Amino acid sequence: MTTDQAGAAPGYRIAKFGIGAVVRHRIYPFRGIVFDVDPVFDNTEEWWLAIPEEVRPRKDQPFYHLLAENAETEYVAYVSEQNLLPDTSGEALRHAGIHEMFVRDDRGFYRMRDRTPN
Predict the structure, then answer these.
(1) Residues ≥6 apart with Cβ < 8 Å to 85
(2) How many Å apart are CA 77 and CA 79, to the nearest integer?
(3) pTM for this one?
(4) Which sequence spans correspond to the domains of the chain?
(5) Which of 14, 74, 84, 99 could form a disulfide with 23, with the two C-beta atoms 3.0–4.6 Å apart?
(6) Are 65 and 78 in contact (CB under 8 A)?
(7) Maximum distance among all alpha carbons in the chain?
């Protein structure tokens, strides 16, 4: 596969957010931490069509798997890049799954846990 000048394969964009990035949704009141990135939409057509057409995201952009939370609950979300913004609040996330996947450093940044077996 060849790449363009930015290093991305043709038809793909470089993801704006990396693993461990804390983000918030542009429209809906939730935030989360990125634990996986798809370079383009990689979910079911049914899932995509269930989104109201007026807010349905384009498929030709990175999509992020998030350990997400809002005021009431914690869940896993699949969100397009166009609907995410950096979360600069500095507040720790409470999602129970975070501690299995990430370590938070003294500066408040999250990094993947070392998954090397003992």
Answers:
(1) 23, 24, 25, 26
(2) 6
(3) 0.85
(4) 22-112
(5) 84
(6) yes
(7) 50
